Structures are given as structure tokens and as C-alpha cells.
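Bench notes, afternoon.
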Amino acid sequence: MNTAGVKKSYPPVEVRRKPKKTAGQIVSYVILVLWAVISVFPVYWMLTFSLKNNNEIFGENVIGLPKYWVWENYSRAMNTGDMPRYFLNSVIVAVSTIVITLVAAVMATYAMTRLHWKFRKSMNKFFMLGLTIPIHASIVPLYTTLARIKMLNSYWALIIPYSAFSLAMGILISIGFMGDIPYDLDEAAFIDGCGVWGTFVRIIAPLMMPAVATVGIYTFLQCWNELMFANVFISKDSLKTLPVGVQSLSGQYTTDWGPIGAALSIATVPTLLVYVFLSKQIQDSFIAGAVKG
């Protein structure tokens, strides 16, 4: 059969049109954009605040970009008092608190979820009581205790209370993960010759990395920004943390607010960096917990 000259017919190509956004979706987008602006505005205001003089801060240019960029506010913030030392003190306290909290929380969780002993449920309830105690409600008994054991004006006067009040949340987060790790892994590790410590270090701890990241970030945010304990328990200038150092920039009669804004920006940058680089791990940890549950 000769098919020359016969045109082949093809089925019509369907053009897919993008679905139109409904009124509900548009309202949702508008709300999310407004919420993003509200969330970002304090950071924008703080950064512009740190580059202005008092005249612009108090009336001439409160919200807009600086008319005169006063970069020397940052040098004055670093040179007034001893800001580098305050920053180092905050790093020492925060890192020590995170390490102690992580080790204690993960080990306590391992004992209460993987080992069988008589009072493990009661001990878990005891730890969870820590969530019901406001951190600053204990400032008087803590001060009395630290004074009696001569621990005031030391790094430990902050590290120990910060670690203690972070432990309950660390255990709460860790239990949700460790409880969902299959017990078959423990049995396989014991068959291969691992003891309790070997199973914990080689099997459980690596699987707990998402929870460890989450606990570490929450602990960092809590102790890095804390002011009351640092202001009451530490009176030596050489041991003050960054929030107390920023507070000391305010004069008795007159205050140059530009350097204070610069000091606040310096204190906030580590928090922003930690969230930017580790926020994905926090989200993954919540997703993993939701899937496991």
C-alpha cells in the first residue's frame, strides 16, 4: 500500500495551564509576607540603629537607613569596657554548658530508655519536673548555695545552673529519638561483643546526631542571651559575659546609643549564624521525630 503523500495525524497536544490561585491562597501568602517582614524588621532596625548617632535615633531618622554611616560605633563598642573579653567569656560559658548538657542528657536518656532498672520511670518524671520551674525563680537559693560553697565570681557559677536548667529539655528531646531506635541494634551489638558503653558509643550516639544538634542549639540560645544569672552571680569585670557587658555601656547621665546598638549587633551575630547553618538539622530532627512517631 502506497502511503506517499498521506499526512500523518498526531493527537492534539494538551497545554497545561497553571492553576489559578484561590482567594484563600492569596490571603495566606499576604499573611506570610507580613509575618516575614515583622520577623526581619527587628534585625534590620538593630543593624541600622548601630550605624546612627543619637540625633537620628531619637527623631530625625528612626526607621530609615542612616544618613551618615557611623562605622566608628563598632570600634567604640569593642574598645569601651572590655568587649572582646566579654565575648570570650560568653563563648567559654556557652560551649561548656552545651558539652555538659549534651553528655548528661544523652547518657541519662540511654539509661532510662535502653537499660532496665527499678526506678527509671520515676527518675524520668523527676527530670521532667525541671520543665515546670522558671529559671529565674531559683535565683535566691542558687545565690545562697553558690555563696556558701564559694563558687560566685567563677565560670562554674553560670555553667552549672545553665546546664541544670537545660537538662530537662535535652532529655525530653532525646527520649523522643532514642525511644524509636530499634532494640534489634542493641541485641546485634551485644552479640558482636559490645558491652553497655560500646553499644552507647558506637551504635546509639551516632544515631542521635539530629537530637544532639537540636539540644545544642536550644542550649546555646538559652545561655548566650541570659542576663539575670550573669548579672547577679558575677561581679568581677574580667568574668562578665556579653549581655552584662552590653548593659555596662549605658552611662549614668548620658548615653551614646550607637555603640550600644553596635554591641547588640555583635552579640546577635553568633546566634544568627548558628541558626542559619544548623536550622536544617533542627528541621530534619523534627521531621525524623514525626515520621518515627
